[in-house]
Design brief:
The complex is a heterodimer of chains A (149) and B (155).
Chain A (H helix, E strand, L loop, with lengths): L1 H34 L4 H18 L5 E5 L1 H9 L8 E4 L4 E4 L5 E5 L5 E12 L6 E10 L6 E2 L1
Antiparallel strand pairs in A: 1-6, 2-3, 2-7, 3-4, 5-6
Helix pairs in contact in A: 2-3
Chain B lengths: L1 H36 L6 H18 L2 H6 L1 H5 L3 H7 E7 L13 E3 L4 H4 L11 E9 L2 E9 L4 E3 L1
Antiparallel strand pairs in B: 1-2, 1-4, 3-4
């Protein structure tokens, strides 16, 4: 009888440890997978670099419209606000994109300032005929070194 | 006593097996995710190409003296960004190879040797470079432009 109780106690203790470890393991794995959910990190990387490419080739006075429909779709799935997807930092000449948990940033060497005019929704695409969301911004001469969101 | 000892050994062996199984699953899952999503969108070569175009345009549109004296403002290149992530070298009528030459019109960064190494093509940790010539009047201008910028993930 005494032996049996001891065995039951040990068994419960073993199960508690096993379940605790299992929960920690599952939570860790979920965190890793969640970070790459929807391929958000990959698309952030892509959009940050493509926007930088456009800015590097631009000249002061240019007005840019860029199809960012995929980015807005992923941001919506990840419950991110459209206004916080693209951040232009004129202080560091940097473009940051956030459509997942983290933010991806890349720098442009062209010495210009960016005036962001937001994301325009459901703009008709002349080539495909579909309605897409576009990023709209102006390229200007360097004016003042501050952060514009 | 002996029986109990054997039982404990069995339990401990099962615990080790349990931990081992979790490790196998964790390593397998992480490897799969990093292979599929981990690779960065390769952009250094495009970055270097754009810098080369910017500098070559600048060389064609401005005097070499102006470029030598005030490269960043004349060419419209942001100095802090260029110094942090790029390397540029401009040689005029160089008798020797611009990569190793000490006499140049303008130098930004160092270690231009790694630009011409052929063995580094598959290694993403090395910079990507572009090397070309521009004819400006009677001068032969050699330009090397390279990029070592990587995406920065911020929490």
């Amino acid at each position: 009888m005494i032996n049996k109780k001891a065995t039951e106690g040990e068994l419960i203790f073993d199960y508690i440890i096993f379940i605790t470890v299992l929960v920690l393991f599952t939570a860790g794995m979920f965190a890793v997978i969640n970070n790459y959910k929807n391929g958000a990190a990959v698309w952030e990387d892509f959009y940050a670099k493509e926007v930088v490419k456009v800015i590097n080739n631009a000249k002061a006075g240019d007005e840019i419209f860029l199809d960012v429909h995929k980015a807005t779709e992923i941001a919506k799935k990840n419950e991110q606000s459209f206004s916080s997807i693209f951040l232009f930092n004129n202080l560091n000449n940097e473009v940051c994109v956030k459509i997942g948990e983290k933010r991806s940033c890349y720098s442009y060497f062209n010495d210009v300032d960016i005036i962001p005019l937001g994301i325009e929704l459901a703009v008709p695409d002349k080539i495909s005929g579909k309605y897409v969301n576009v990023l709209h911004f102006n390229v200007t001469e360097v004016q003042k070194k501050d952060e514009i969101k | 006593m002996r029986l109990n000892n054997k039982g404990d050994t069995g339990n401990q062996m099962m615990s080790l097996f349990y931990v081992f199984l979790m490790l196998v699953v964790a390593v397998g899952l992480s490897t799969g995710i990093f292979i599929f999503f981990g690779a960065e969108y390769q952009f250094k070569q495009i970055d270097a190409d754009e810098m080369y175009l910017k500098v070559s345009d600048c060389v064609l549109q401005n005097s070499l003296d102006e470029i030598g004296n005030n490269f960043y403002s004349v060419c419209g290149i942001n100095k802090p960004v260029a110094e942090k992530y790029f390397r540029v070298k401009i040689c005029v009528n160089g008798n020797s190879d611009c990569v190793v030459s000490d006499s140049s019109l303008f130098v930004l960064g160092s270690d231009f040797q790694s630009c011409v190494l052929k063995g580094i093509k598959d290694n993403s940790n090395f910079p990507r470079c572009v090397n070309g010539f521009v004819k400006k009047g009677s001068d032969n201008v050699e330009i090397i432009a390279g990029s070592q910028q990587k995406i920065r993930r911020i929490a």
